[in-house]
Amino acid sequence: MIKTTKEQRKAILRVYNRRSWDPTLADSRLTYRQFRATIQPTFGCDGAIVLPWAGMWLCIERDGYTHS
């Protein structure tokens, strides 16, 4: 498992909760733990992680800032 900050974990939960209202993502019945297992590390990005979501990659910075 990839080490994450508390702010990153909060951001991952916010992204996970978005899945409930998006009908294109609702068919994916991943649990939160399974969803968290999809995160990937980055190289040279100061501890940021990336997360596949809705056909794109979301980057979550150490402070929880999330962008595509």
The ordered H/E elements are HHEEEE
Unreliable stretches, pLDDT < 50, 5 or more residues?
Answer: none
Largest sheet: 4 strands, antiparallel
Number of domains: 1
- What is the residue-averaged pLDDT? 87
The total of beta strands comes to: 4
Q: Which descriptor suits the 3D outline?
A: globular
CA radius of gyration: 11 Å
Count of discrete alpha- or pi-helical segments spanning 4 or more residues: 2
Structural class: alpha+beta
Tell me the span between the first and last alpha carbons.
22 Å
Q: Strand order across the biggest sheet?
A: 1-2-3-4
**Strand portion:** 15-25%
Proportion in helices: 25-40%
Report on this model:
The chain is of the alpha+beta class and 68 residues long. The chain has one domain (6-67). It has two helices and four strands; from the N terminus they run ααββββ. A four-stranded antiparallel sheet has the order 1-2-3-4, covered by helices on one side. It is globular and about 30 Å long. The chain starts with 5 loop residues before the first helix and ends with a strand. 9% of the residues are buried.
Précis, in short:
This protein is α+β, with helices and mostly antiparallel strands.
Keywords for this entry:
68 residues; alpha+beta; four-stranded antiparallel beta sheet; 2 helices
Indicate the topology.
Elements: H1 6-18, H2 32-36, E1 40-41, E2 49-53, E3 56-60, E4 66-67
Antiparallel strand pairs: 1-2, 2-3, 3-4
